[in-house]
Every structure is written in structure tokens, then in C-alpha cells.
Amino acid sequence: MTCEGGRIYVHTSDERAPSTISKVFGVVSVSPAYSVSPRMADISKLAVDIAMMRSPGSFAIRARRAGGEMPSGRIAVEVGAAVQRATGADVDLDNPDLEIFIEARPDRALVFTEIVRGVGGLPLGSQSRMLALISGGIDSPVAAWLIMRRGCPVALLHLDVSPYADSIEQVVRQAEVLQSWMSGRRLDLAIVRNARAIEMISSRYPRETCVLCRRLMYHISTLVMKRLRAKGIVTGYSLGQVASQTPENIMAEQVGIEAPVYHPLIAMDKTEIIELARRIGTYDISIGSQQCRAAPKKPVTRARLEEILRIEGELGLRDLAMELADGVEIVRIRR
Hints:
The chain is an alpha/beta fold. The chain folds into 2 domains: 2-117, VC0802-like (2-Layer Sandwich); 130-333, HUPs (Rossmann fold). Helix content is 39%, strand content 18%. It has helices spanning 17-21, 40-54, 72-87, 139-149, 168-179, 195-204, 209-227, 247-254, 270-280, 283-286, 305-315, 317-326; strands at residues 2-4, 7-9, 29-30, 34-36, 58-65, 90-91, 98-104, 109-112, 116-117, 130-133, 154-160, 187-193, 233-234, 261-262, 329-333. Helix 5 links the parallel strand 11 (154-160) and strand 12 (187-193). The longest helix has 19 residues, at 209-227.
């Protein structure tokens, strides 16, 4: 692999390379390219050979000068004329059957016909590690992937609420998919057993169960985050997507939490999230996840912060979080 003039060159004969490289965060696009001398005759001959193999009804030459001496307009005209003479195909700049891209550099010309879309973002590892909460549902692995796209390696945290819901199988499979996006880096999955806390909370404050459970979740997450040397917590929240994800509830859940909390999906709707889940590869796994049976039919949607903090103190959620976090199990996800 070499880097030159804003391009990264991967020298390989593996046909899988474009697909593999396109999944590397920071890569905008990938193109399998031929390299030829910058002489017009050599560029034209290669373009003609490519066109003859494709036999297009129409074509377009997309030329770009990247430090070479010849203007891009001249390259497009002369190479286009050579291709038209050899093939008899029409020139169509709007909707051609074949596009031939030429990038003229001082010492070579790159010629290609395919642009594989990459995921973009920032290179993984260019930002600090994050702890992403993962439930087994559709949203949380997408949120983890989006924060990875911004350069952050992740560790995952799952709060196991069995028997109220059993999502361990889905979570492990989602983690395996996310690991495939980690460019060979290690992915840790932390699991904390949380059923005892849910039973206590739901039996005493049923309508506030979700808000209180999430406050407990954030306290546990903060402790696990510090243990794994992460710098923030990532959730799959989307504002207003469910009854409990309201501004009032989110504030009541997060005030006083001793860690930054990131919500990559906060302004996205469900169709956008599902589209990303399909692209990432987690959607088919996620649709088999279970809903928590401890969730009330009529949850509080505008929680009062003062009341939630009072109940948190009454139930001793901070101490309970420390006890539960001490029992965390770390699973290393294999490649």
C-alpha cells in the first residue's frame, strides 16, 4: 500500500479488495484502476481496449488532471474520439452505458470504470474509545456503527434482563457483525445481569420503571465505561420514537450522570434507521429481539426530575449500580 497525492494505492490482484476496502471507515470510494504512462497514445489505447471489451451503445469520458501537464478537456476530447472511431458508440454525457474515468498525473494516468461507494467518516482510532449500549433491537447497533464511523472504536454493554426479555443471542450476533467493521481491532462485549433491579423497581414504581431503569443503566454504564477506559456512552435513542423517549424523560434519566452521553440517532426516523441497519448487516438479526415485559402499558412520558431523583435515593440506585457493575462479564468477540 502506498500514498501519493491524496490517493491511497492498494496493490493487489484480489477481486474482493474493492468490497473489503469500501467497509473501512474514512474511505469515500474505491476504484479498481489500470495504471498507464501519461502519454496520450497510451491512455487512448487503454480506453479503447476497455470499451471494446464492453461494446457499449454509448459512452462518456470523465477526465481529471491531477498534476499532469495535459488539460482535462483535451484528454476527454482526444480519448473520446479514439473510442468513438474504434467502437462506433455514441457520446452521451448524461446517461451513458459506459463511463471511463481518467486521472492524469505527472508520472502516470489512472483509468477506471467503477466507483465503489465507501462509508466515509473518519478513520477508526482517530478518536477515543466509546462504550455503546446494545439491547438486541434495531436501533442500538446502528448507533454504535455511526459513532464508529466518526473514528471511535467501541466496546459494547448489554444489560441482561432475563427473564423479562432474553436478547443475548441477538446481541452476540450483532456484536459479531459490528466486529467485522472494526478493521481487525478487538471488540469487547460487557454483560451485566440486571433482572433483580428491574423486579424491585417495577414492583414499587411501575409507571416510572423505564425512567428509573435507565438511570440505573447510566450509573452502571459510567462504571463500566471507566473500567474499559472509554470516554463516553452511546445510546440508540431517537427523539419521540417511543412514548418514553421524550425530552422530559431524557433529562430525568441523564441529569447528574458522570459521563458524556451521545445519541447518534436522535433526529433520525425509523425508516432511516432501518435502511442503515440493512446496510450494516444487523437488521435481520434485530427483528427477532424481544420487548422487555417489565415495561408498563402506560409509562410516564413527562417525568418530573425532582421526583425521579428522590426515588433514586430512596431505592439506593447508585449503590445498586456499583454492586451490579462489580459482576460484569467481559466477552471478547471473535473475528
